[in-house]
Amino acid sequence: MTSFILRRLFQTLVVIVLLSYFCYTLMTLMPGDPVELMIQSNPKITSEDVTRLRQLYGLDQPTYVRYFNWVKTIAQGDLGYSRTYRVPVSEIMGPKLINTMVLSISSMILSLLIAIPLGVIAALRAGTRWDYLVNFFAFAGISIPSFWLGIVLIIIFAVLLHILPAGGTFTVGLENITTFQMLLDRAKYLILPVLSLAYMEIGIFLRFTRSAMLEAMRNDYIRTAKAKGLSYWTVVWGHGFRNALLPLITVITMSFAHVFAGATISETVFAYQGVGKLVYDSIISNDFNVAMVSFMISVTMVLVFNLIADILYGVADPRITYK
Amino acid sequence: MTANRAIGGIILNNPVVQVRNLETTFQTRLGPFRAVNQISYDIYKGETLGIVGESGCGKSVTSFSLMRLIEKPGKITNGQVLLKGRDLLKLSESEMEEVRGGEMAMIFQEPMTALNPVLTIGRQLDEQIMRHKKVNQKESRERAIEMLSLVGIPSPAERYTAYPHQLSGGMRQRAMIAMALSCDPTFLIADEPTTALDVTIQAQILELIQNLQEKFHMSVQFITHDLGVISEISDRVMVMYGGKTCEVATTSELFLNPRHPYTHALISSRPKLGTRVDRLQTIEGSVPAPHELPPGCPFYNRCPRAKTECMNHQPPLQEIKAGHQIACFNPV
User: Which of A94, A146, A234, A306 can bridge A230 by disulfide, Cβ–Cβ 3.0-4.6 Å?
Assistant: First the structure.
């Protein structure tokens, strides 16, 4: 097991390096570079200035040289400087990354708490009115676009009922408040974006839970468990769900991989200070350093959570052994 | 029916299980289908009753009805199942859970799939022991290992922590038996426990069940479609066809003197050792679909001795001599 994890970690590292070079190359292939944007914003710039600026920023060098320079600074813990925001990347990304994490993880937990019990019940009552109702709810969640749901939520809770803020991350200008009040204030801003994000996830997790559970409850060992005199719910959770968990592990862990990628649409609709919009803006505006860091976060997360899924799978299913 | 009786020299007393007019119905698109149709039988203390019949005759449904493990769209629609005088069909679900795996246990056909693949053998045994006996984890573990060694599993303490996939089919069936017997059942239902095993393992498992039955003084209901297995293991045999009982007799009586045309045909279709035949004898036709069963005897359309009355009237199960009952108007 340990050697498997070490080997997979090494593989993961290799893939990260290869992908980072690939992403870096793609970035340089994009039309325009930071200097071109400077030219547009400064009509008095001369061609000598352009050459000097290109040399200054190292943009005249071949891609692989620039890549190695970038890796060198990253390795020293320096993520670079955001050209658009004129602050170090860590300074601009750090707080936004935390906001995004809070949003994504809360919506993930909420959706799992709702989807798993509902999915299990739908599977146990398959073919009944209950099942149809739950399925309808799930399909609506999958089909309704989150921006539309977001707007509807704003209209209901902010515009009509005035009980929740329409957007933002926290109340600006609040002073002399306790940490608890601060958290409460932030939570108020989280509710609507979490709901709009969670609904889609509920739909997806619910469908997976239902089908995994249906499959598991059809097995012979369920009958054996009943014949042992175990109570219905012990059979359902201890035997049925324990087996249904295996296919669910992959789906759930892979969803966690996207926690840091940001929910661009929800964050935009609710003007939430997350990383999603930042990433989009950085690509559009040739803000290389910000874009590269967010690429690397996404890539690493997907690879690491893949590894976690594999390990969890080995833990949950004794039939799988790693050599 | 009297409780004590002597059949073929064996004195049978104390019926442990009394099944009366059991009827299990499945709601199908073509209407209700009685998989088990008004069957009655007794199983005495320490006795093995073999139930034999071809696929779809209702033998497994009978077992599941006794355990009250019939799934929708099936339902027990009539009858009584008395276990030591207590009607199981009248118990609440939680009272029934006490009985299942406690007084009454069951082993299944497929040892490959009947055990939960993600839990250790020990965990699966403990679950049942701790459910029915007032013991702690440590005592339960001791009991589980004792049971595993009793059913002939080598190095039981190691097998306790093994997962089902690490055991062979025969070993898994032994583990299933250990599990079923772990709470000292008075009545064991074995639903084709040897069908999925190869012949040598089959013989070992049969011997094991017989030994354990003597040791624990259990009553056993043994279900199979294999006449060879039946002749080896059971004291008495009940032959089923189309959800009904055709014939009940002691094993030797049934094999030597089958009276129901179906039993007779079944026994004559077995190949005999030492005789060469070009074609094995078969029973013409096939089991009628549930909705095509005649109102009378279910064997009517395949029976060489059928008369008009057989089509419209179900022959009652009657005693033709001590301990030998048949349901036929024109016995062989």
Answer: A234
